[in-house]
Amino acid sequence: MIRFKNLNGYIWFLPFVAFLLGYSGLRLLLHKKQISTPSVVGKSIQEALAILSENGLNMRLLKEVEGSDFKQGIVLEQQPAPGMFVQLNNSIFISIAKTHRTSTSPNFLGANISDVQSKLNELGIKYRLIASPSIYPKDSCFAQFPSPNERIESKEMILYISLGSNPVVIIPNFKNSKLSDIEDFAQKNDVSLNVVFKSEESRFEKEKLFVIDQKPMAGSIVDLSKKLYLQIMVDVQ
To answer: FRET pair for 127, CA 20 to 30 Å: which of 15, 90, 139, 169?
Structure first.
């Protein structure tokens, strides 16, 4: 008859062994491979996506940074930083450059307020309207900032809208306006216009002439009960 040795002294050890085996097995089962995060700073979005995909990582857009010195779509920053260890299939968060868009101010002088608003909304340009007496027809634009054909740096235009005829008006800014536009304005509003050419050669290039100076100056208040005299200096632009 086979007799078993007394195992009572070893039974207490069995639960501890079972725990170690279970813990080790679970750790091996759940453990994921870790890799060093590749650098995508300075890369385009397409290049960054390709690099991260090849390394088994995902890409997520964190934010866009606007600036005129940045090239559109270039990665400026990433999290986690290059060289840090992450698990496979983790996401890398990137910040990309967004080019600051500058545009040229359209010429709204003489345009109706509804046409002005429609065009600005179409271009996505913010604007502020200021109503004031002027010699322009009612509800038309008689002055603007920035002036026509100048760059819009402040992301907003200021437009002065005419309230119609008034004995006292504010002279608008005619600088950077075409000579032909000022001549039409003077004819329609019975304004005596004196044109001074900066150079003798400019007389022969009328279609290219723009106002570079004016008298009375922009912002001057004049009495319309008297004859209005306007002097402008023009040059080729």
So the answer is: 169
Write down the architecture of domain 103-236 according to CATH: 2-Layer Sandwich (3.30)
Q: Which amino acid is at 27?
A: R
pLDDT 10s digits, 33-89? 788 999 999 999 899 999 999 999 999 988 888 765 667 789 999 999 999 999 888
The rounded distance, in Å, linking the Cα atoms of 94 and 87 is 17
- Would the pTM count as exceeding 0.90? no
8 A C-beta contact, residue 169 and residue 137: no
Question: Is the CB of residue 182 less than 8 Å from the CB of residue 135?
Answer: no
Distance CA 127, CA 106 (A): 12
Predicted local distance difference test score (pLDDT) of residue 138: 87
Task: Return the SS3 of 172.
Answer: coil
Q: Do domains 33-99 and 103-236 have the same CATH topology?
A: yes
Where are the chain's structural domains?
A: 33-99, 103-236
Selection from 142, 207, 202 nearest residue 179 by Cα: 207
